[in-house]
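ARCHIVE CARD
Drawer: 12
Card no.: 0347
Subject: one protein chain, sequence and derived structure
Cross-reference: see card 0346
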Amino acid sequence: MYPSQFPEENDRSNQSSITLTDETGRSLECYVEHSLEVDEQEYFLLLPVDSPVEVFAWQTDGDGEEAVLVEDDFTIEKIFSTAQAVLSEQNLVLKNTAYALTAAGDLPMVEESDIFTLEIEDEEADLEPEQLQLLASFYWEEQEYAIYTPLDPLLFFARINPEGKPELLSPEEFREFQPLLEELLFNEVE
């Protein structure tokens, strides 16, 4: 994830958007943060219009509690209506969008006590810990769940395919473009 180059208070009403669609037909509306052309192919750095959220299940192990990201569609489907109801109490609307769950509405102010730091264990990549803001927690069938939103923006890198539709780059393709993207973002910050 990369920090957004647009201030939070920036009016995005004039900014262009692209809708990503996954293989199940779900969509995700995104703002175009940047576009670039490489070898006559246009690429886009995209920021979701609504806030991405992640659901974690709290598991008890011998030494304490561990947060486990809920990724399977079956579990998400089972707990979705409860999660939706809990977020609605904060005037947020939970959406089952493509590539990530999202919440529409104004997020609460970040409070230090609501920040959760997730250490990402990956042997191949040297990843920074991710900081998440707690939005709500709830129980479903005696299992505790928590809904968080990342403090850093969730960005997607896509291109327009031959059919004229936006598609995400594969992880391998993204790794090829990552140095170019970092250079673009770094030059813009200066």
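Annotation on reverse: The first strand starts at residue 17 and ends at 21. Residues 170 and 176 are 10 Å apart (CA to CA).
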